[in-house]
Amino acid sequence: MRHINNNILFLSSVIFLYLVSFLMIIFLNTEELLYNFYAENYVQEQLEEIIEQHQKWWWAAYAITPLIVIIRSSLVALCLSITTFFYEMEHPFKFKQFLRIALVGEFVWVLVAIVKFAYFYWFQTDFDLVAFQQYYPLSFINYLDVESLDSWFVYPFQTINLFEVLYFFILVAGMHKLLKSNYRKSFEMVAVGYGTGLLVWLGLTMFLLLNIN
Fold first, then answer.
1. Is 161 helix (H, G, I), strand (E, B) or coil?
2. Which of 35, 57, 85, 207 ranks highest by number of CB atoms within 10 Å?
3. pTM
């Protein structure tokens, strides 16, 4: 892992996300889903204004993808690096080493996008925008009646999924290789660092959604 360039990991994950997004637009007609959703909920004048704004700012969704990847991986790397201070490691480690671990983990979220595309392309072919947005592969949210939930509960329940578990253990494997510690200690450090960061993020997200609603 230490020989993999961070820039290559970053660019690769972004390119894969762009590719899956392109496939969703072409084969799942996500743009049409968006227009149908607005058409059902807004009058003609509002719909035309929304479509105009969407056409004007379509590039923003693509521009924000690299930003999301780098912010997400940087925050995870920060959590992991802070944790090492509490465990009094013998040798100092650079932030880019923790960032590399987080960037490897980013491919889990690429896999999530691929599985989601495959699910709606081959299995659940009749769906609307709401169903598409609320579905998360191998997540606890899929077993709940989402319509009966408050909107600020949806994201936390989406986070309870097997891909999150896979991401966690990729971080554990990365820390194990970087720190040359046993798996138990690496597991504990990731649980403390990433686990705490995830709980703080979920709490902040729920707070913001609650206030917005």
1. strand
2. 35
3. 0.90
